[in-house]
Structure formats: structure tokens, C-alpha cells
Amino acid sequence: MIAAFERFTGMEWRGQGPAVVVAGGHAATHWITGTLYVLVPFITKDLGLSYTQAGGLISVFYTASFAANAGSGAVVDITGRRVLIMALSLLIGAVALMGAGFAQSIWLLVGMVIIIGLTNNIWHPAAISYLSRLYPQNKGYVLSVHTLGASFGDMLAPVSAGALLVWMGWQGTATVSALPVFLVAAVIALSLRRSSVGAAESSETSANAMSFRAYLDGLADLIKNRVVLSLCLMSAFRSMAQNGLFLFLPLFMVDVLGFGSVLLGIALMSMQIGGIFAGPLAGAVSDRMGRRPIMVAGMAGTTLAILGLTMVENPTAFIAAMAALGFALFAVRPVIHSWVMDLTPAGMGGSAVSVLFGTQSALSALVPVAGGYIADLWGLKIVFYLLAGTVLIATLMAALIADKPRG
User: Fold this and answer.
1) Other residues' Cβ atoms within 10 Å of the Cβ of residue 90
2) What angle do CA 180, 185, 187 make, to 5 degrees?
3) I need a surface site. Which of 12, 35, 132, 209 has the fewest CB within 10 A?
């Protein structure tokens, strides 16, 4: 069985240890954001917020994420200290989530959400460029392992937070949920720094960093690459839908379908279970077939799945539909990342990821407030039609971007 797995992925099992550790760190970043999204309906009720105001809180998160991209990629590429940056992003994010648990007013909560948004996008340039450099021939598969971590974080956080909410308020849930992230940060710092690649980052700076002049030259080449920029814009439209779903699905399930906190956690977990199966499969197949066919199929399926959710009211059927949505939605994440890295100039992986996630954050920041305003006027169901439309735009864009099979 192991031999068949190695043939499918094109990698030996024992060589995947660093990828698994980085995926664990990615799970921790999504544990933080997954917890935040589950808390939003309860924060909204406790503080008496409208849907527009609740959306504004999440827009602050994406605005901060966008701001982080302005310099995080440059820091990664110029310093080459990817392991240290990954560990610090987790540590600071955990402190901010714990701090949110002490918030007695909206303003301290907003401050902590800003810090979470900053650290969330500091993680990605370091982690994705680290894995791409370590596994250059298997980016699709390895980055699918990275996104698999995201799915685990997004899957476990709602169930954990939902259970904690039964026993304590949202403040206590935020504080307790921060504790595991500190442990993961320590594992990242110790295990990867002891690996051969981590040691090279500490002792062979010239192999991992570049001069500021060389960085500017590489950045100019990256910005001139129209295909990379088209991919970033396409991914941003898809990200608008994904992040809109993270906010409005919990509100829809609690306020419209009447789900309690435990059932809410189970439903959100089912969406991530679909992604756990889809991500590695899509990533490995895209290494062989090319990125574009997988992208188009996954996003077309996502469009149909979002529309389907608006037609289901039975809780069991809704949870099953959530799993189908997750399969299509999360299959394409590693494919996007590996497609961008395929086209990125050598040594510019961190900045390419910053451009990608910066574009995503910029457009995603529009969705919570716009969607909240629409929900206040016409109801939550109309928001899902808007989200389906953004994925449809991304699907059409992906179909027009040139691709070639992986050799």
C-alpha cells in the first residue's frame, strides 16, 4: 500500500516529514480563523451587532491580511528565514486570539482581529516558498498536503469551539482555543530548524536570501508576468466566495435553519472533510495533467454546490451538501498555489505568494460588509447567489489562462 502511495505521489513516504510539520502549522493558522468564524454569530448576539457590523469585523481581518502582504513576501525572500517567520506568525496569532477572549468592548476585539489578520498572511509566503524550494518536482502534491493542514484546522476548530461554547461564553472559548497554537509554534521552531533545510537557513544565508537590488529586479519580473497576475485575480474572485461562505454559512445555519453550536460545528466540519479527500487527489493529478483542467472542474462544481445549498432546509441533507461543497471548493487550493509557483522566478516565491494572497485579501475584504448589507436588506439567502456569481467569474477566467501538462 505504501509503495502504491509513493508511485501515485512520486515521492518516498519518509521524505515527507517536513511537509507534514508545515501542514500542522497551517492547521494551526486555520484553527485560529476557524474559531473566529464560529464565534461571530455569538459575538453578534452578545454585542447587539447587525449583519453589516458583523461583516465589518471580518472586513477588518481581510484588510489587515492585505496590509501584511505589502512586506511579508519581501522579508521572506530577502532574509531567507522561513522557519523563524512561520513560528513567529503562529506565536503572535495565538496571543491575539487569547487577547480576544479578554475583550469587553468591540474596540479591543477589533484590535485583536487586526493582529490575527496580519499574522495569518505572514504565514503563507514563508510556508509555501519553503515547501516549493524543498520539493521542486512535486509542488502540486506537497502544497496539497499544506492545504490539507488547513482543512484539518478548519474542520477541528468549529467542533472544538462549538463544544466549548456549550460550557462557556465566546470569550472563554477564544482564550482556551489559543492554547494548542503555542505548542504547534514550538514544534515548528524546533523540528524544522533541526532539519537539513532549517539548518541551511541558519548557517548558509547566501543560499536562501538575496540582496535588496536582486530582490527588486526579481519583483519587477514578477509584476510583468501577466499570467501570474491573471492567476492572482482569478484566485481572488474564488477567495471572495470561500471567505464569504466562512462568514455567512454560520449566520445562515444559526439564524435561518436554527442550528445550535454543536450542530453548527458538525456542519462546518463536514465541509472540511470533503476538502481532506479532494486536496491531495487534485494536487497530485495536477502535477501530471496540468493545473487548468482541475481548476475549471473544481470551481464549476463549487458554483453549483453553493446554489444547491439555498434549496436545502433539512439539517441532514444540508450537512451532506456541505461535504459536497467542501470537496469542490478545497480541491483547487493547492492547484492555485502550485500553478503560481510554477511560473515564479527563482528566489521570488515569498513575494509571489504575497501578491497572490494580497489580491485575495483585497477583494475578500469587500464581501463581509457588502454581503452583510445585502443580508440586512433582503435576507441571507441572496448573499449566496452573489457568492456563486464570484466563483462563476473565476471559473471563466481559469478557462482562458494558458496551461501545459506537467512533465
Assistant:
1) 28
2) 95
3) 12
On whether residue 405 sits in a domain, the answer given is no
Per the structure, the complete domain to which residue 29 belongs is given by 15-202+216-400
Separation between Cα atoms, residue 198 and residue 184, nearest integer Å: 16
9 falls within a domain: no
* CATH number of the CATH domain containing 262: 1.20.1250.20
Q: What pLDDT does 12 receive?
A: 60
Amino acid at 82: R
Q: How far apart are CA 116 and CA 29, in angstroms?
A: 9
Q: Is the pLDDT of residue 21 over 80?
A: yes
Q: Beta strands of 103-159 (E only): which ranges? A: none
Number of domains in the chain: 1
Give the residue-averaged pLDDT of 204-209.
46
- Give the pLDDT of residue 406: 45
Least Cα distance to 69 among 29, 130, 125, 132 occurs for 125
Task: Report which of residues 213 and 342 the model is more confident about.
Answer: 342
Confidence of residue 97 (pLDDT cuts 50, 70, 90): very high
Residue 82 lies in a domain: yes
Could you tell me if residue 295 is inside a domain? yes
Q: Please tell me the distance from the alpha carbon of residue 335 to that of residue 281, in angstroms, as a whole number.
A: 10
- Rounded distance between C-alpha atoms, residue 157 and residue 361, angstroms: 22
